[in-house]
Design brief:
The protein has 3 helices and 10 strands. The protein is of the alpha+beta class. The protein folds into 2 domains: about 30 residues; about 190 residues, no CATH class.
Length: about 230
């Protein structure tokens, strides 16, 4: 069956119109800018969110590190205001340190307060030591004490505080030293600081030996939720 002239012209017109419409649609689609911002945001948003969380976590970490430093200063400062420290005195000092840290979970805190002096032969001796939360992983090296602080006329008090800070927004991998979004098992990093202070009321600070078997080593624990030495 052959098409007439008019039918053939109509058919040709429809084909050409369809082709023109398709070309215009493709050009319009390629020139369209709709949705570009959404696509760009989809690429940038994860990076921005990760940076925001990282900066927020860093701010919290710095604030906690400063609190640990302040707590170590408080521990040494209160001890050096005594010429002789009793167990009750040390219990109050430990409580003040925990209040400074503002940390309800005391199991994540280690406190060590030690008084040193020199004997007549110039050797370093320990006048007493108090710990809370167990001993530190490494003993304090007295070789680091400057002679201007510890000498024949003056002893020194060394206060150390360690706190296991758990990341609130990010997790920390101690093996690779990298951070990632918080997982079900948040990692922790130990913040520590040490303060050395000279006694204020006497040449050296001594620890009372009248209670607890005459020992100058106080292993403090908790009684009714408060430190007790």
């Amino acid at each position: 069956m052959r098409l007439g002239v008019e039918e053939n012209n109509v058919f040709t017109y429809l084909i050409r119109s369809s082709q023109e419409w398709a070309k215009k649609s493709v050009r319009a689609y390629r020139a369209s800018r709709e949705g570009v911002a959404a696509i760009e945001f989809a690429f940038v948003a994860p990076i921005m969110i990760l940076m925001y969380l990282g900066l927020a976590e860093l701010s919290l970490l710095i604030a906690e590190d400063r609190r640990v430093s302040h707590a170590a200063n408080v521990a040494g400062d209160l001890t050096t205001q005594k010429s002789s420290v009793t167990k009750d005195d040390m219990s109050n000092i430990m409580n003040a340190v925990l209040l400074t840290l503002e940390e309800p979970d005391s199991s994540r805190v280690n406190i060590e307060i030690t008084s040193y002096s020199l004997d007549t032969n110039g050797n370093i001796v320990t006048n007493g030591q108090a710990t809370l939360g167990g001993s530190f992983g490494e003993a304090y090296s007295t070789n680091d004490i400057d002679a201007r602080l510890l000498n024949a006329s003056s002893g020194v008090v060394v206060a150390r505080v360690a706190y296991d800070y758990r990341f609130s927004l990010m997790s920390y991998n101690e093996d690779t030293h990298t951070t990632a979004p918080l997982s079900k098992n948040p990692r922790a990093v130990t913040l520590t600081d040490t303060f050395l202070l000279k006694p204020r009321k006497s040449a050296q600070v001594t620890f009372d030996v009248s209670a607890g078997g005459g020992s100058t080593t106080y292993d403090c624990g908790f009684l009714a939720g408060k430190p007790s030495c």
